[in-house]
Specification:
disordered N terminus, Ribonucleotide Reductase Protein R1, domain 1, 6 strands, 3 domains, Fumarase C, Chain B, domain 1, mainly alpha, 59% helix, two-stranded antiparallel ribbon, two-stranded parallel sheet, Fumarase C, Chain A, domain 2
């Protein structure tokens, strides 16, 4: 299968379009326009589509039923031989479609040449991509739900692990590690939902759309769609082969998912610094320095953060490729697969690596709890305390802001003050001894019992919802 033949020699491995040309392209031109090194991953999807197409040709009487059965049987054998490595894909072929049809024709002769009846490579390619995405994307979705499960496991062990929440990278309000991890989990839930929605939109078969205008032969598109487990057929033959918005949509989903992974990686990188020391990554998921013996670097988190740009780039390639194309098919569309597949491979590996990295990390609970002390993260709770005593919130806000300013001058935290000192800095006698419970960091988190808040029972409710989702 590896012998290279001219694009116009008329052999079984000739380019599918060779009949129009008396002279073939030179070697450099062939190398430039071939795509088999990219689309060969769709070999089994291509065969699956071809088997369904052959079966339809036989059932509709377009070709003899026995010949359709022979084609389908031989294609099934080819699929097994590709999976087992008995057949080595010839990278000198123009594309995977040409290669498989060439192998089939080598074996069946003229019967094999009947396979392409009523079909174009345009609708064949569009079909193969959809078939590939329909089984590949669920693998990514499973990897994302595995990450959610890993985060839930950590969260359940840290329902009362205090830490400071941050805005503008400044200490804001006390929360818990469980609450924080559930926030990341919820973002990943939406990533899964985006993938689910995108899968619904590709669940229609383009096969039978031909080059752009269908076929004059009595093919049955609905039959092949049913055989291939599609919900239906695409309603317009021109649109079926002319757009790659589904490639753009999936790569957009991958890009948003990578945004979340990159942001989470950024936190891991910050948290693993000596300055924060919230998290200690496993040595299996860290690297050292070639010059500084003491270093333990979060390289895997940094690589995930860096590879996010690669996925963004793939999305921009697809958007730019499509933006000026008139209907219908243009060869520019051949460039869709490299960007789509590279984005998919990148995001899948990053999700899996991040899951391993975060699952094996150790959490410094005391250091995280210490982040709630100082920085006046309980200032809002003191304002809320005054509101419950009858003071308007805007007044309470100003009162506490003034108290914080005075505490900064005194170099004291709110919780370090005596009752009389608190009354002095706030200028109100509404404050009583019960204030100290209200501004305790643990109670600051636990008192926030609104839906989605950091109180333990609310986080448990959220975890139950997340578990229900991943099941």
């Amino acid at each position: 299968m590896s012998e290279k033949k001219s694009a116009v020699d008329g052999g079984n491995h000739a380019a599918l379009w060779h009949g129009r040309f008396a002279e073939g392209p030179d070697a450099e031109a062939v190398a430039f326009e071939t795509s088999i090194h990219v689309d060969s991953r769709m070999a089994l999807d291509d065969i699956r589509g071809s088997i369904a197409h052959a079966s339809m040709l036989g059932k509709t009487g377009i070709i003899p039923a026995n010949e359709a059965d022979e084609i389908a049987a031989e294609l099934a054998k080819i699929a097994v031989e590709i999976k087992t490595g008995k057949i080595e894909i010839d990278t000198s072929a123009e594309d995977i479609h040409s290669f498989i049809e060439g192998v089939l024709t080598d074996r069946l002769g003229d019967i094999g040449r009947k396979l392409h009846t009523g079909r174009s490579r345009n609708d064949q390619i569009a079909l193969d991509e959809r078939l590939y995405l329909k089984h590949a994307v669920p693998d990514l979705r499973k990897a994302v739900t595995d990450l959610i499960a890993a985060l839930i496991d950590i969260a359940e062990k840290n329902l009362n692990t205090l830490m400071s929440g941050y805005t503008h990278m400044q200490r804001a309000q006390p929360i818990t590690l469980a609450h924080h991890l559930c926030a990341w989990s919820q973002m990943l839930v939406r990533d899964c939902c985006r993938l689910d929605d995108a899968l619904k939109r590709i669940d229609f078969s383009p096969l039978g759309s031909g080059a752009l205008a269908g076929s004059s032969l009595p093919i049955n598109r609905e039959m092949t769609a049913k055989d291939l487990d599609f919900s239906g057929v695409t309603p317009n033959s021109l649109d079926s082969v002319a757009d790659r918005d589904y490639c753009i949509e999936f790569t957009s989903c991958f890009s948003i998912l990578m945004t979340h992974l990159s942001r989470f990686s950024e936190e891991v990188i910050i948290w693993s610094t000596e300055e924060f020391k919230f998290i200690e990554l496993s040595e299996k998921w860290s690297t050292g320095s070639s010059i500084m013996p003491q270093k333990k670097n979060p390289d895997f988190a940094e690589l995930i953060r860096g590879r996010t740009g690669r996925v963004y780039g793939n999305l921009m390639v697809l958007l730019t490729m499509m933006k000026g194309l008139p209907l219908s098919y243009n060869r520019d569309l051949q460039e869709d697969k490299q960007s789509l597949f590279e984005a998919y491979d990148t995001v899948l590996s990053c999700v899996r690596i991040f899951t391993y990295m975060i699952s094996s990390a150790r959490w410094n609970k005391e250091r995280m709890k210490a982040s709630c002390v100082g920085g006046y993260a309980n200032a809002t709770d003191l304002a809320d305390y005054l509101v419950r005593k009858g003071m308007p919130f805007r007044t309470a806000h100003a009162v506490v802001a003034g108290a914080v300013r005075k505490c900064i001058e005194k170099r004291k935290n709110l919780e370090d003050l005596t009752l009389s000192e608190l009354r002095e800095v706030t200028g109100t006698d509404l404050i009583c001894n019960d204030v100290f419970e209200k501004i305790d960091p643990y109670m600051c988190a636990e008192s926030r019992r609104t839906t989605g808040g950091p109180a333990q029972d609310k986080v448990r409710e959220h975890i139950i919802e997340l578990k229900r989702f991943i099941k």
